[in-house]
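Thread title: Can someone regenerate the structure for this chain?

I was given the following input by a collaborator and told the matching structure tokens would be attached. They weren't. Posting the sequence so someone can regenerate them.
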Amino acid sequence: MPVILDSSDRKFIMLKKEFEEFERDLIESAGLWVKAGKLLFKVFYLLFKVRVLRFQRRNLLRKQSDLLLKKFNYLAAQSRSNGNSGDFLGGVDCTHSVNAPNY
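Best answer:
Regenerated them for you:
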């Protein structure tokens, strides 16, 4: 025997279905917002890491230039201490030209 529903029961069933759809949509929306938040967090984390790596690179380049300057100063001081200030390369040019065979 079929169940006969009056108008108040139909309204209740329709409201229940609408509420279930709303609840499902709300949960899906919340899930999407959580994924978007995670993605945004990852983007900010990567931007922070890029900033740190740029800072480290800048410091390493500064240290490298300081070391090259110190090396240059050391070589200049060594050539001055040998008393041969005109021969900055420490005789490298001389050894090649003296030992080179004449053809």
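The first helix runs from residue 7 to 81.
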